[in-house]
Amino acid sequence: xxxxxxxxxxxxxxxxxxxxxxxxxxxxxxxxxxxxxxxxxxxxxxxxxxxxxxxxxxxxxxxxxxxxxxxxxxxxxxxxxxxxxxxxxxxxxxxxxxxxxxxxxxxxxxxxxxxxxxxxxxxxxxxxxxxxxxxxxx
Length: 138
What we know:
By secondary structure, this protein is of the alpha+beta class. The chain has one domain (12-111): Beta Polymerase, domain 2 (2-Layer Sandwich), CATH 3.30.460.10. The protein is built from five helices and five strands, in the order H-E-E-H-E-E-E-H-H-H. A five-stranded mixed beta sheet has the order 1-2-5-4-3, with helices on both faces. Strand 4 and strand 5 form a beta hairpin. Helix 1 crosses helix 2 (54-70). The protein is globular and about 40 Å long.
């Protein structure tokens, strides 16, 4: 009997990589893993991918959720993936948020441009990370 390895407490970068891998297995398109740790305290990574139809979006979501459950990772919350065919499903895994969209929604909301252009949040860094004014003066 094969024993499953739990990844329940996996670091956020490993969790994001797993999500991207499982989405790729389901032929998710244009998979983007974005590190947003310097821009928000809400999460560490976004994983964004495109599905070709609402059915494909649901299939990607179902497979990723199933594979993550197999290694002990469950979402904190998720949008309704059996809803009205809105073309965008979101899974919140705490330190990683997984977005699956049809192309039209992805282009319209353009999360990548928004988050890549958002400046660093200086409140997220401890004073140790800030340059020391005495060192700067010398």
